[in-house]
Amino acid sequence: MDQSTTLVAAFLGLVEGLTEFIPVSSTGHLLLAGHFLGFESAGKTFEVVIQLGAVLAILTVYAGRLWAVFSAAPYDPQARRFILSVLIAFLPAVVIGVLAHDFIKTVLFETPMLIAIMLILGGFVLLVVDRIAPEPRHEDAMAFPLLMALKIGFIQCLAMIPGTSRSGATIVGALLLGASKRSAAEFSFFLSMPTMAGAFAYDLYQNRDVLDASAMGEIAVGFAMAFVSAVLVVRWLLGYVSKHGYALFGYWRIVVGVIAVIGLSI
């Protein structure tokens, strides 16, 4: 792996960590950046596998809280209910993700213009929902009703279209279902753990024949950058959205999407 490839992998890892947990589509940003930088990974595995760095960032930030929940699960119904709510929300992504995996990776991931358009459309959706979301009825992400969690899980599947944003879909869904801005982001954090870990494991299995030593070097660099930058974002995000909402991210999506459309049209 030469120096230029190392720098590109580090840059893409930074992009992944900075964008994974905010509703701007980390995958969309990665694929567009890779397209304009001329970066290619076998089976788009780099883009998926470095997300594990962001998963570990969430686990690091929430380690104490997660340990308390799982330790209490044998005797605390509320802890068991929270774990079940995350698993229920995760289930639709398992079924639809496995069934549509080849189409997603070979068609949707290979269409930069679609990604740019979804960034723009998602930006407008985020701006509208940030303004019209109903009065919050659910303030605690660890106490969402099970049916609400299942609905959020189905809405998350929209993010299989690159440029939509996994966190964006789950946050918008949660807001429309009565979650507060903070709890919507936090439930998105919790749901990201099984969703991203599952995507990582399945994609690694599907592309096991095309991975090589040089690809693992790129992945390691991107992984490390994604982990560090994601830790910083997670620690900052909840406080920001509690005070300011999601409008900034809507405008960001629109600007990036328009620039991408222009760049792809030239």
From TrEMBL:
- Annotated transmembrane regions: 49-70, 82-101, 107-129, 141-161, 217-238, 244-264
The answer to keyword Thylakoid applying to this record is no
Q: Give an example GO cellular component term for this record.
A: plasma membrane
What EC number(s) has UniProt assigned to this enzyme?
Answer: 3.6.1.27
Reaction catalysis annotation:
di-trans,octa-cis-undecaprenyl diphosphate + H2O = di-trans,octa-cis-undecaprenyl phosphate + phosphate + H(+)
Q: In what way does this protein cross or attach to the membrane?
A: Multi-pass membrane protein
Q: What class of enzyme is it?
A: hydrolase
One biological process term in Gene Ontology? regulation of cell shape
- The domain of life for this entry's organism is Bacteria
Q: Which UniProt keywords apply?
A: Antibiotic resistance, Cell membrane, Cell shape, Cell wall biogenesis/degradation, Hydrolase, Membrane, Peptidoglycan synthesis, Transmembrane, Transmembrane helix
Give the location in the cell. Answer: Cell membrane
Record-linked Pfam families: BacA (PF02673)
Tell me which InterPro entries the record gives: UppP
Q: What is its main location?
A: membrane
Q: Does the keyword GTP-binding apply?
A: no
One term of GO molecular function: undecaprenyl-diphosphatase activity
State the remark under miscellaneous.
Answer: Bacitracin is thought to be involved in the inhibition of peptidoglycan synthesis by sequestering undecaprenyl diphosphate, thereby reducing the pool of lipid carrier available.
- HAMAP family, alphabetically? Undec_diphosphatase
Please report which protein family the annotation says this sequence is part of: Belongs to the UppP family.
Q: What does it do? A: Catalyzes the dephosphorylation of undecaprenyl diphosphate (UPP). Confers resistance to bacitracin.
Q: What is this protein called?
A: Undecaprenyl-diphosphatase
Q: What is the organism field in this record?
A: Sulfitobacter aestuariivivens
Q: Which gene encodes it?
A: uppP
